[in-house]
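Meet today's protein:

…
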Amino acid sequence: MGKPYGKTIGPFSVAAREQGETYAGAIFHDGKRIEMQAGMASQKEAEDWTLRRVNELVREQIDLQEVPSHAQVVEAFATLPPLSAGYRQMLKAHLHAPDRRITATELTKAADYAGVQSAANLHYGTLAHEVWCKLPRHLPIDERTDVPIWTFMLADGKRAQPSDEWVWTMRPHIADALLELGY
């Protein structure tokens, strides 16, 4: 039996757990279950369904052009669990990069992840996911994994060709909040 999954994402709570031979995911709002999907093959599939669905619900509820207030972003970062040295180094490097633009290779160097670009992608994405849970916004979906691309919570990303490395430009409201927090 897998360990039950639960997380608070803004005004939503999500859960995923084993249900007999299959797995189910559920979304709650104001303590009431608003959606449930059963019959999934794995707990990861159930967890990913809850995250994708909350991302869709956020898109339906929040104006896509809406930028969170400065106070909301500061509060989101201030209420995160203590950040590792690597997370702090990546945020500082991104904040202070020329034009606040950075690649995963540069984030890897900043966090001293021994040249493993995928480690920076994973950790920066994980940090962005934690911020998203505090301040959910609609994010683009990764076509390979069918889940949101979490880094878009912190930055806009572009690449010249599909095979090129992403170049991430920190969102101004994220930069302003980090500056206030002493980064």
Summary: The chain has two domains: 5-61, 70-180.
